[in-house]
Amino acid sequence: MWMYLGLLAALFLGLHNLCKKHAVQGNEVFPVLLGTVSSGFLLLLPFYMGSAWFPEFMQEIQFYITDIPWKTHGFIFIKSAIMAASWILAYQALKHLPITIVTPIRSAGPFFTFIGAITIYQEEPNLYQWIGFFLIIFSVLLYSRIGKKEGIHFKRNKWIFAIIGATFLGASSGLYDKFLIQSLTLNPQTLQFWFSFYTILILLIVLSITWFPNAEKRKAFKWRWSIPLVGILLVIADYFYFRALQDPEALIMLLSAIKRSQILIAVVVGGLVFKEQNKRKKLVPLAGIMAGVFLILYS
Known about the structure:
Keywords: Membrane, Transmembrane, Transmembrane helix. The chain crosses the membrane at residues 29-54, 75-94, 127-147, 159-181, 193-213, 225-244, 250-274. It comes from Zobellia barbeyronii. By secondary structure, the chain is mostly helical. Helix content is 79%, strand content 0%. It has helices spanning 2-24, 29-53, 55-60, 70-96, 99-106, 109-119, 127-148, 158-183, 188-210, 215-220, 226-245, 252-259, 263-273, 279-298. The chain is globular and about 55 Å long. The two termini are 16 Å apart.
């Protein structure tokens, strides 16, 4: 069951990435990010209020947000700080790079998760899983060669380093999620609500320094329908992902890889919607990444 939940998470993440590209194109990144996280928080707020006023009903429909100790709040704040840094880097990179380059680099995240799963959680991969992960990494390297044809030199482009940093931080957060869900026994909605709350606080601090005092940047910001949709789709995707992690048999390294199937939506649909270059050539390494994911599922 947890694998099917992972595939549902991948579906909504793919749609989330398409909306995110639309939201940041020619737009100020930080207020877009604040708008998306705030939208997700507002979606979860009725569940928090319902848990306070109608606890029995919320428990019955399995959306009850539990009371947690301050120590647990501290653990969730750490996740918020990690993901805020990852999103800031990722949104900046997405603003300056094609989605068909950004998304496949993000697909290297399972490799970092793979290493962490072995060293931290002692998850044991088999031969097919080894082949699958290295096939994903090799396919991402192929994307770098295609990126040069679009004027994107991986060694000299700072946004490439930004998306690599975002990928590493995102993978670290994924490993941390297993600790939060399984070791601290947090339910998905409780983790999502407080994670969104603390992320908004962090972003408000960042914006108070970089955006609010600058009148020109405030005028340059464009509100788009895709901004709240990004946050809503992410909350739905994370909910399915955290539900999958609740299963004691769930392997974080496999879940991370399954989520990479979102690239099918980002590369194929995104390439058509945003009319990006070399779409056919990008299908070759895309096939390699999908084959890697298949090997992991098959194993």
